[in-house]
Every structure is written in C-alpha cells, then in structure tokens.
Design brief:
single chain, mainly alpha, 7 helices, 0% strand
Length: 128
C-alpha cells in the first residue's frame, strides 16, 4: 500500500506524528504547568526541568516543520534517554512498559536523525 503513496508524504506524516507528544507536552512551558516539585523529588533542579520543557516544545516544533531536524531529533533523543532512566527506570515496579515506550521513541527519533526530514520540510526546501 505504501508503495503506491508518495513516500515524501509518508515521511512527513511519520515525522510529525512521532514528535507530537513532545510538542504538546512542551506547552507546559508556556502555561507554567511544569512539574518542578515532581522533578525535584527525583533530584533534578528546577532549571533542568525548564530546559527539558524547552527542548520538548522547540525540538518538537523543529522536527514538525523540518527545521534543523537532525539536531532537534538528537536533542529529543538525549531528553528521552534522561526521562527514561530518571523518571521511568525499568527496575522500578510499574515502570517497565513506560521505560520501553521511551526507548521505542528513541528508535523513531534515530530514524529521523539518520534519514532527515524529507522534501516536505524547511530543511528539504533549502536543499532545493
């Protein structure tokens, strides 16, 4: 079925759907709804939480529009790796599935970092 579609549209849709969770979650930065107390209970300082939410919001937006996509995907990989081990360690009861979901997201982001955003993106248009 996908062979009959133009793969540039499939790549754009996949790229956008992959990072919507980051972009939507990053809106806490704009609304002030950031779980600083929860992060502090895990040993993170407040500034690290603010940086994390900025990465989610702006990194997610960058991948969605395809601007500096590979760099943004790599930042989201680092963010997700941190959240997997700090907030969802697999060795804690009840965190096994969430940890592996985080690792799976890293897999998708690695694909984006490897292949880039495709032609339907700011980066793709800049290449002509």
């Amino acid at each position: 079925m996908l062979d009959s579609l133009n793969n540039q549209y499939v790549l754009a849709a996949g790229r956008i759907l992959l990072v919507l969770i980051y972009f939507i979650g990053g809106f806490g930065l704009l609304t002030g709804d950031i779980p600083i107390d929860y992060a502090a209970s895990k040993g993170l300082p407040a500034f690290a939480v603010w940086i994390g939410f900025a990465i989610k919001l702006f990194g997610g937006l960058a991948v969605i529009v395809g601007f500096q996509t590979r760099i943004a995907a790599c930042l989201l990989i680092l963010f997700t790796l941190g959240t997997a081990f700090i907030f969802h360690p697999f060795w804690v009861e009840g965190e096994w599935n969430t940890f592996w979901k985080e690792i799976s997201m890293i897999g998708g982001l690695l694909v984006v970092a490897a292949v880039g955003p495709g032609r339907l993106s700011i980066d793709g248009r800049a290449k002509g």
